[in-house]
């Protein structure tokens, strides 16, 4: 098994949640949301390091929250590499990882702090799929689209314009797993050419790669809106109670 590293961009503002602070630092199921995914990766012995890119002003977790301290695990690295966009934060953190001595061909799993429902099983499924395919550039967790897809009307944005075919469409999740230098170069090229990058795979696709699609899990949703928060709080609370009772 090759050495694996994790990068979690954690510098976003979470403005769509309507909170007073970035959502990744808000308490979810008893601890700041970002810690759920961080602790999942740190529970995996195959992970050599976990890097969290934060902005300078958000490097401290809210002291008033329970369990609000960064992990003491020696593999954990808090890096003030937050940028203006997600892509900037990822690039800055990748460069910090390379500067620390991590090999340019090392595999890096980039994961959203706002996806606290990630399981070890899903992360390992991605790792196994990517590392078993010798010639692939990397891969992502994703879910095949099950819902009917509607496009709004250009004349009336509150109405349906038409229904789109969903065949072959997948909903991208994270982690997204690529080699350190290849991902750095792909993201930098996208940024320099002002290409909108909403995930790492889109930058790699633009560079000519075809990442693997690896089945994810429905609980690995991105917490974006208040209703997502309530649902994920229930899922994580139930999971925590189940573990305590075992």
UniProtKB/TrEMBL annotation:
One of its GO terms (biological process) is isopentenyl diphosphate biosynthetic process, methylerythritol 4-phosphate pathway. Its EC number is 2.7.7.60. The keyword Nucleotidyltransferase applies. Keywords: Isoprene biosynthesis, Nucleotidyltransferase, Transferase. It catalyses: 2-C-methyl-D-erythritol 4-phosphate + CTP + H(+) = 4-CDP-2-C-methyl-D-erythritol + diphosphate. GO terms for molecular function: 2-C-methyl-D-erythritol 4-phosphate cytidylyltransferase activity. Pathway: Isoprenoid biosynthesis; isopentenyl diphosphate biosynthesis via DXP pathway; isopentenyl diphosphate from 1-deoxy-D-xylulose 5-phosphate: step 2/6. The keyword Nucleotidyltransferase applies. Pfam families: IspD. The record marks 166, 222 as: Positions MEP for the nucleophilic attack. HAMAP family: IspD. Belongs to the IspD/TarI cytidylyltransferase family. IspD subfamily. Catalyzes the formation of 4-diphosphocytidyl-2-C-methyl-D-erythritol from CTP and 2-C-methyl-D-erythritol 4-phosphate (MEP). This is 2-C-methyl-D-erythritol 4-phosphate cytidylyltransferase.
